Amino acid sequence: MIGERDKNRPWLLGRPEPRVDGLGKVTGEARFADDLDEVGQVWGVVLRAAHPHARIVSLDVEAARVAPGVVAVLTARDIPGNPLVGGVIQDQPVLASDRVRMLGDGVALVAAETEEEARDALALIRVAYEPLPVVTDPREALRPDSPLVHDRGNLVVHHVVRHGDPAVGFECAHRVYERSYATPRIEHAYLEPECVLARPTEGGGVEVVGSIQNLFSTRRAVASVLGVPLNRVRIRHAVLGGSFGGKDDVMTVMACRAALLARATGRPVKMVNTREESMLESYKRHPYFLDYRVGVDRDGNLCAMRIEIVADAGAYASMSPFVTYRSVVQAAGPYRCPHVWTDVRAAYTNNPYTGAMRGFGSPQVNFAIECLMDEIAEDQGLDPLTYRRRVVFRDGDITPTGQRLTGHRVSLDEVLARIGAASGFVDRWWRYRAAREAPGQVRRGIGLACSYRGVSLGAEGVDAAATFVQVQPDGSVIVSSGVTDMGQGAQTAVAQCAAEVLGVPLDRVVFLNTDTSRIPDSGPTVASRGTIMGGSAAAEAAAQVRARMLEVAADLLREPAKNLTIRDGVVCRAPSENVPSRLTFADLAAECFRRGVALAALGWFQSPRTSWHEETGQGIAYFTYVYGANVAEVEVDCGTGRVRVVEFWSVHDCGRVVNRQGATGQVHGGVAMGLGYGLLEEFEVERGVPKALNFDEYLIPTAMDMPRMHVEFVESPDPAGRLGQKSLGEPTNEIAAPAIVNAIANATGRRIRQIPATLEQVLIGRRLTREGPRGSEAARGAAASCKVRTEG
Amino acid sequence: MISTAGLSRPMFARPKSLEEAVALLASDPDRWTPVHGGTDLLVRMRGGFVSPCGLLDLTGIPGFGDIRVADGCVVIGAGATHAALASDERVRTHAPALARAAGMIGSPAIRNRGTLGGNLANASPAADTVPPLFVLGAEVALQGPGGTRWVPIEDFATGPGRTVRAAAELITAVRFPARGPDVRSAFQRLGTRKALAIARVSVAVGARVKADGTLREVRVALGAVGPTVLRARETERILEGARWGEEVARMACEAIQREALPITDLRAGEAYRREMCGVLLRRAVGEVVGGSRGRE
Description:
The complex is a heterodimer.
Chain A: H1 22-27, E1 42-48, E2 54-60, H2 62-65, E3 70-74, E4 84-85, E5 92-93, E6 99-100, E7 106-112, H3 115-122, E8 126-131, H4 138-141, E9 155-163, H5 166-171, E10 175-183, E11 195-201, E12 205-210, H6 215-226, E13 233-237, H7 249-265, E14 269-272, H8 275-281, E15 288-296, E16 302-314, H9 320-330, E17 340-348, H10 362-379, H11 384-391, H12 412-423, H13 425-434, E18 442-454, E19 464-471, E20 477-481, H14 490-502, E21 509-512, H15 530-557, E22 564-567, E23 570-573, E24 579-584, H16 585-594, E25 600-606, E26 625-637, E27 642-653, H17 660-680, E28 685-686, E29 689-690, E30 708-713, H18 736-748, H19 759-764, H20 777-785
Helix pairs in contact in A: 6-7, 9-10, 10-11, 10-18, 14-15, 15-16, 17-18
Chain B: E1 11-13, H1 18-27, E2 32-35, H2 41-47, E3 54-57, E4 67-70, E5 73-77, H3 82-87, H4 89-94, H5 96-104, H6 108-113, H7 116-122, H8 130-136, E6 139-144, E7 147-152, H9 153-156, E8 157-159, E9 162-163, E10 170-177, E11 183-190, E12 201-209, E13 215-223, E14 230-231, H10 233-239, H11 246-259, H12 270-290
Parallel strand pairs in B: 1-3, 2-3
Antiparallel strand pairs in B: 4-5, 5-10, 6-7, 6-10, 8-9, 11-12, 12-13, 13-14
Helix pairs in contact in B: 10-11, 11-12
């Protein structure tokens, strides 16, 4: 950082500090939601729908009410407040009253003294259904003759981008590509199934602790369902065993149900999903059907794009309006193109509902555009890296939403140059391409994909977060934030931002789990916004406390405060060089405490402005962007269709790296998920009924499937983040699949346009999944053990 | 985290000797379900497919997993774990395909608990140890109150999850001729991912390769493409006495695709499975002829 004053150079940021919560997790001291119990608690269980779409004709719970151990049985009629929840559109019943729309819908709740008694009582509830026509293809759902999942129609949302005029653009086209792509519904596959513990509190309220990702969204819903003000509902965060966007709506529904049972019984209520219940009920990643029409001129420039996408929202809207917003913004990829029209529609179906999942509408469009760009490159007689470097965004370019990329460094070309050098991409790509015709069944291939990604929520809505920093009289520090940790490392990142500014070593900081009654509503911890929003708020709070402490230090050291800083727990004299004084942070904190100085501050960070014009899809979609590229090297067995990813390179510009170890871990995890998306995973549903409900048949990659990883960062500190930091969690996950599929094309010469690229898909270019009932015993078992009944 | 709601609460016994185990089982055969590693049984219990009245835990029987060579035979105790089979020198010498197959099962944790006897009792058509036992000409020892009978491996399983074992009998051992490295065997398997994946198709081949390159005593077995593991006799006839080459390979592949009885399920389509029988056969025979490992 030449030219930057030494005083401002980070001393702690970027260091591979161990996770603040790491030790507890490996020793078993960490307390997950299911580790928590309360004296006198009862167990809550859910009776789920027997049909993916049906009218409830009658519901008889009397036998269950008097069953052994049963304390309460509740139906939709017992909900005192608003019976519907939903983050954007309130369309999801906490309990179905007259109609079920997916197999995971809850119909009744039972609370009993033991889990066994509660589950036994479920069998005594009689439900008579009148099955309704089922719609499972979102494209069919949008036809006028489709069965309606919701009375207001099956269209959940329709986003557009209207930039330039493709009709004009296509006239310049030397070549036009029309390609269709399809991406699968997938499971988040968090290690820990959903769990909550709810306790009734005074004033008609509740306190809920659980494996909840977005505590404030859950609080809003619980208060609304109970009909009480927000201050009567307290949601606390247990240690989370993974979420990946998955513990949002499903946890909100579970928390509402537990809260209802807690109010009804006057006792603490615990609810835990089995894996089968979790897979049946939880929302998934949206399957997309994508049609791209792209025109390329004689020089290889993109002259027009017309993109039409239909997303399967499943039975409820959940985050569909926002997921598809990101898709419409990013569908054309990080490429200069003057004429882009994009339409993204999401439709209700009777499939499991779909919502937030790491990537959030980007993995689908990235798969399509990155596969297509590869094809165009090859037709241009160029390798995919060289071609992309000619057409990617650079500083000052205009995106399809009309946003000029300024105020930060548009580093994609540098990212591509770095990954090309690290992987030897160009040489290998030509070499493997030439070797396609060589004898032998095993071929190698190398593939590239890149992306730009809007940081945080963008024009989805309000974007602000709080972090509370308290320095104790002994110099130790407590940080709590509205940003939650679900295993992604937010605690460490936020704590490290606070420690950087305060000037204390990270091991002096304790991070408290989020509690909605003790920290302001900071929005959801989504959109890779934890580090930039929570971390910036932490820096803001820490700066306030540090300024007060340095005033005291100035008095003690007889030196102007502006000449002082704090590093590694010691007050230093600045600016020319950091000369340590004899004043430690701990002694200074003690002195501040004696003098009555406020050693605590609430940092509030609000994002820069964004804008969006609904009718044209033009505006400042996100306040800044991150850039990344992936390269996959694969080995394809042309005898069996088996693909092995043998080596993988990830280069990301995520702004300033806060914690190198955490950042690298994010990349490894993101690539693992992306590999599963590209090669293995599909949550198959037939006529509304999932085909697999446990990890014996829903296969995700294991450590054995992971390639040798190479991770690099291009650090362009961004003024949008208080310390130059941006986002990383989702960028790591969104381009692995197209990199792998492009590598398969490099090896075999065949383009796969539907993922996962299963053995059959690779070998013969289509899927071979059978229609009709399954033969395997495990499948019957999964259905039986999650209490899917043919009749109630 | 793991719900125990689906698990019944069976009686439990852990006999200290084989005699005690056989006597206890004979006293009330319908009550007791033998268990060793439990890697299949406990999953089935949780899924609600079986709810045994009593679990007869065989882990307390001394020497139940011993492996020895006696009277020209390799004798493997039913309690031998997959991990033990994969690493045992005698198994690797006389039955490399079995060692290889055992080393591909599940994950290290499953291989450390799961046993050969359990793999046979579970009678999955996709059981990895069974195709190698077919080509080895193995026999299974069933010990009941009346003594021990030896059943050829090909007669042992009668359908998915079904065997000829009587309720009062225990699987105590498996034996096959110790023919040394002259009779080569190979195992090829295709799974969806590298570990923890049930075979979609597996092929085992055993043969003696004469100095002139002809194949003798050929045996071919197919896994996961029928209700039980299958012996591919027509394929064997084509290979018997033949020299491995493209024409023979083509005929053998056609034969094995006819002999396979695959179904479509979540793990693979029928047409794909049939085609893979040929691909894996080529690789397995190639491995036997070349004396080297083919690709997985």
